Amino acid sequence: MAFNHLPAGVHDALSPLSVTPVTHSMPMAKNHRSDRTSADTASRPSPGTVLDRLASGPSRASRITHTEHLPPRAGRHAVWPDRIRSEVVAAVQAAGIEHPWAHQALAAEHALDGESVIVATGTASGKSLAYLVPVLTALLDGSEAPNGRGATALYLAPTKALAADQRRSVKELSQPLGNAVRPAVYDGDTPVEEREWVRQYANYVLTNPDMLHRGILPSHPRWASFLRALKYVVIDECHTYRGVFGSHVAQVLRRLRRLCARYGSSPVFLLASATAAEPSVAARRLTGLPVVEVADDASPRGELVFALWEPPLTELHGEKGAPVRRTATAETADLLTDLTVQGVRSVAFVRSRRAAELIAVIAQERLAEVDRSLARRVAAYRGGYLPEERRALERALHSGELLGLAATTALELGVDVSGLDAVVIAGYPGTRASLWQQAGRAGRAGQGALAILVARDDPLDTFLVHHPEALFDQPVESTVLDPDNPYVLAPHLCAAASEIPLTDEDLELFGPAAADLLPQLEAAKLLRRRTKAWHWTRRERAADLTDIRGEGGSPVQIVEAGTGRLLGTVDAGAAHTTVHEGAVHLHQGRTYLVKHLDLEDSVALVEEANPPYSTVARDTTAISVLETDTEIPWGEGRLCYGSVEVTNQVVSFLRRRVITGEVLGESKLDLPPRTLRTRAVWWTVTEDQLDAARIGPEILGGALHAAEHASIGMLPLFATCDRWDIGGVSVPLHPDTLLPTVFVYDGHPGGAGFAERAFHTARAWLTATSEAISSCECEAGCPSCIQSPKCGNGNEPLHKRGAVRLLTELLRGAPRE
């Protein structure tokens, strides 16, 4: 029997920067003033005092498992390079920024030297100004050119909202420069009548990778003058380009470079990122170019007190009688309530829109019992709000009218809310980069800040609150992406050929796998070779072959049954697990129930409802090995990496009570199986190893299954993925290996780089997995260690102690990394 764990599809978890609370208030650069008076700042309680008050209630103190103190840091100024135009320096000074931080000046120097550069410094450290100053200088120089439009620059953001924010900032900063700088947003929301003006006259175009892929590159003749003059390409929040999405963006950037070369330009790439492990390596994989890194953060920060908080066990019981912890949602609502009562300006970050609304409502109800006026000072902030609603909430938070906000990561990325007093993070957000980005929203120089990570009932969260060194003594994760994934590369080769016929000289740009793919694309009648070039053969647009954020296949449309109104879409790969019949679907704060899923027409019919539960799909999975790329002996066992085929079928779904997580029931489903060819890491053990670990046939399946669940839960600590991006299968006797085997695989066609990262960090990854299981205080296994919320076998069988013994024996033979 195989035990399995399948991902629910691509979850674009945007996961930015490292913590640096600072003195900033201006969205772009923030090297200056505070919007709070010194008297007001002095009246604020210290973060330690705030934490002491939070921990003073009954049983509260025991919930804090660790407190980390990050000392304040003074800023280090420098001078702008002398090649920066004096008008640009004057404009920056007029915005209140007298001198740059040292890292800003250094990054600008590299840009002026024609070197691509990545600025990898903390939250609110002024990365935007580091790239804007050389860009504005180039645009100002270009405006004085006797012929043509002069220099141009392209800005890429992962979201339309961030591009719009940056346009406002650029317009404000460049106002003293007159008509020399003409910024314009070009995305799916740009009115048709404005698009021609942008193409012809804008010299700083702000867009996103999706529009570059579908709109700009396929229409490059209409952008010829812009591309011919392209001096700089700015890639903001570049750490968000990871996994399959990042791999697609890497190929889009190679297509851009190819077209620029044909028009005679060679733009310099300026990237902004979180502090990351080897940021220049990640930037090179993304752009295909050598990239210099500037990672020494010279901006100031105040003291940060960072507490790890574990909710208590409750009297409730979950699957198989396992104990259930109080939910992070309920705990966070309590903390936000208490912080508001103290007058502490706070944001609680949560992972879902529903949780944001729920926390805000609970806090408002509890605050009304204390003081009715306080209830109006807490609100929710999430995706789906209108821009004017978001701006109003941001202004209210800045002014102090709002004291508390329950927010999704819509507030995490690129929105200027630095200077809060406290941040509560409801559940580990998936990467250390995102954790520090959220924590960095609190504090400013000279003013302390408090951050609290509230653990969910999850193996990774449980491990982290009991192993603080994994958060505070480790660098931010390496960005994982694989531009050579054939499922990613193939459609971009077609798109490139449709833009300009593809020659042999172009293949080096697209990577070593390109040459082998071309004959396959010709056999599929997508490309045809004529003389010395490959040509696109179809009438339809080649750019439509792939959705760079999705998994391929027609997206399923979500339609309101009563009105016929289109609510949205979901990737085809995620449809079986997210919009099956009976699923709870959230859209812009409203809750719907899926009444029917039509797979032929790719439509899910929904009706508005308000059920007291959420739903989680259950599935069964079989896996076969297609090819083993690498195999390493681990004592008598083996650690392997290669290609696999996964066959999955969603068979049922659970209904869980929203607040407690209690299982209310299970319903069967009848959906067809699906196959996935992807990449996996797997390990085997021998009979002798099982004997040494005292694991007999009666507990073998449970031990393997438990180890599989926990290892999937721990992998996000080592690769920039979410546990829903990966899947697993455990088999007491696998037909391809003829041994007990545990597989962990990427939930994306062709792989996403996560399993490869797991293979290369296997010793540390599986050691952490073993520690996470053994340190959990439960007796026989619970959601904090070996139970999975998406297990297709109802978390049966599982054997906690057997998993620890099995992993200990396996690791005994592991080579030193």
From TrEMBL:
**Which keywords, in A-to-Z order, does the entry hold?**
ATP-binding, Helicase, Hydrolase, Nucleotide-binding
The region called Disordered is annotated at 21-76
Q: Which GO terms describe its molecular function?
A: helicase activity
InterPro entries named among the record's database cross-references? DEAD/DEAH_box_helicase_dom (IPR011545), Helicase_ATP-bd (IPR014001), Helicase_C-like (IPR001650), Helicase_put_actinobac (IPR022307), HRQ1_WHD (IPR055227), MZB (IPR018973), P-loop_NTPase (IPR027417)
Give residue ranges for domain Helicase ATP-binding.
Answer: 108-294
Q: Its domain of life? A: Bacteria
Keyword ATP-binding appears in the UniProt entry: yes
Q: Do you know which Pfam families this protein is assigned to?
A: DEAD (PF00270), Helicase_C (PF00271), MZB (PF09369), WHD_HRQ1 (PF22982)
Q: Which CDD domains match?
A: DEXHc_Hrq1-like (cd17923), SF2_C_Hrq (cd18797)
> Which Gene3D superfamilies does this chain map to?
P-loop containing nucleotide triphosphate hydrolases (3.40.50.300)
Q: Which residues form the Helicase C-terminal domain?
A: 335-487
Name of the protein in its database record: DEAD/DEAH box helicase
Organism of origin is Streptomyces kaempferi
At the highest ranks, the source species' classification is:
Bacteria, Bacillati, Actinomycetota, Actinomycetes, Kitasatosporales
